[in-house]
Design goal:
This protein has 389 residues and is α/β, with parallel strands linked by helices. The protein has helices at 12-38, 70-89, 95-108, 143-150, 174-179, 203-210, 223-237, 244-248, 268-271, 275-283, 296-301, 303-313, 361-382; strands at 58-60, 66-68, 127-128, 133-137, 156-158, 183-184, 189-193, 215-220, 291-295, 325-328, 333-336.
């Protein structure tokens, strides 16, 4: 072959294959980056220490209802839907919270900075926020039942143990308080319950200092029945406790002595039931629209109806309804039906629904007469008649 017949030959097919591989690898990298951004890993910039309620695209209307901006709502659709499916399929969400709840109970009695070694699936997503809603009272009113009912909702994340931050551990600081909260996704709300807040004088000012937009839920019950229930709980822990009438009345008697029959408001079981007095303190810091007053009696007789009111107040979809409840004749209150994947229904513990000790009718009648004017004032203040008289 002569030099004149030589022609350069290039393998263009090989170059085209290399080009396609490069494009394919580039597309894989781009898709991977988009995936991590959608799942929240791109949001790694520092945030203010006390980013109260307005973080993560939340917008508060004049009535305090939490909304999301359109941009944040769109970006959150993928990871919210996935996590909600996990949340709903796992004992109505309770298992995702139980390990956190145990840790929070232990950390309440430890020093600031104690670490959380129990990390659940949900801890890989979201952020810890100050609570947008707090169940502030009242003791023996039905607060535990309400919290358990709310925890079914996929948009609610709640601390199981009572933090007692605004009454006992306020000196530990807001950052410690926030560290107790569960992680939440876009569109979810953080909640906690500590019934003693309602009767703690310093609590309204302290909650207001955290956020003026906090939604406040108060579960109330006939104050006479509540006092007896309170006494029954204490008696179960202290068998040698004096009789109910001994503690409820001055001089411990209903006789004809000068102070006999006068109600002793220094006893906490009696004092808690003067709801109007405690509400006056809270109204100095929060408008009435910031409160929802839940009837403890209706929470037993019509849990689905009361839960509709609660979900509306919190700006949530009405997810928790009649299909979730059944009435337990033995305990005398509603329980949650058996969740998917569980071997039994969910009821409150043995400490709930205990039998009340017998109390003389005269003592109960005296207490009803004592509470009547306070009840009427409470009805006027709240605009609700709870039917206790």
């Amino acid at each position: 072959m002569g030099w004149g017949n030589w022609r350069p030959r290039f393998n263009f097919g090989h170059l085209m294959v290399q080009s396609k591989v490069s494009v394919f690898l580039t597309m894989i990298i781009i898709v991977t980056c988009l995936f991590y951004c959608l799942t929240g890993y791109c949001e790694s910039s520092p945030r203010p220490l006390y980013d109260q309620q307005s973080s993560r695209g939340k917008v508060h209307a004049d009535d305090g209802t939490v909304h999301l901006s359109e941009r944040h709502r769109t970006n959150a659709q993928w990871n919210i839907s996935v996590l909600r499916q996990l949340h709903l399929s796992n004992r109505f969400g309770s298992l995702l919270q139980e390990s956190e709840d145990d840790t929070h109970q232990r950390s309440t009695d430890q020093t600031v900075g104690s670490s959380n070694n129990n990390i659940t699936v949900s801890n890989n997503f979201g952020t810890k926020e100050f609570p947008q809603a707090i169940i502030i009272g009242v003791k023996k009113g039905g607060t535990r039942a309400l919290l358990e009912f709310l925890r079914i909702h996929p948009d609610v994340r709640a601390v199981g143990a009572e933090p007692h931050f605004f009454d006992r551990f306020y000196d530990r600081g807001l950052e410690w308080y926030r560290s107790l909260m569960p992680r939440t996704l876009e569109g979810q709300i953080t909640m906690e319950k500590t019934p003693s807040y309602f009767v703690t004088k310093e609590a309204p000012r302290r909650v207001h200092a955290m956020s003026r937009q906090t939604r406040l839920i108060v579960v109330v019950r006939d104050p006479v029945t509540r006092a007896v229930s309170d006494y029954a709980q204490t008696l179960s822990k202290t068998p040698g406790l004096p009789s109910f009438q001994t503690l409820a009345f001055k001089n411990g008697t209903l006789g004809s002595a000068p102070l006999a029959g006068l109600v002793d408001t220094s006893w906490s079981a009696v004092r808690i039931g003067v709801y109007a007095k405690h509400l006056e303190t809270w109204l100095r810091y929060f408008p009435l629209r910031s409160f929802l007053f839940v009837s403890g009696e209706r929470l037993v007789s019509d849990p689905a109806g009361e839960m509709e009111r609660v979900q509306d107040f919190l700006g949530l979809k009405r997810v928790v309804g009649a299909k979730h409840f059944y009435f337990n004749q033995t305990k005398g209150f509603p329980c949650l039906k058996k969740p998917e994947g569980s071997s039994r229904p969910r009821c409150l513990g043995k400490s709930k629904g205990r039998t009340h000790p017998p109390i003389p009718q005269e003592a109960l009648q005296r207490l009803r007469e004592f509470y009547r004017p306070f009840n009427l004032k409470f009805y006027q203040m709240t605009g609700q008649d709870f039917g206790w008289d």
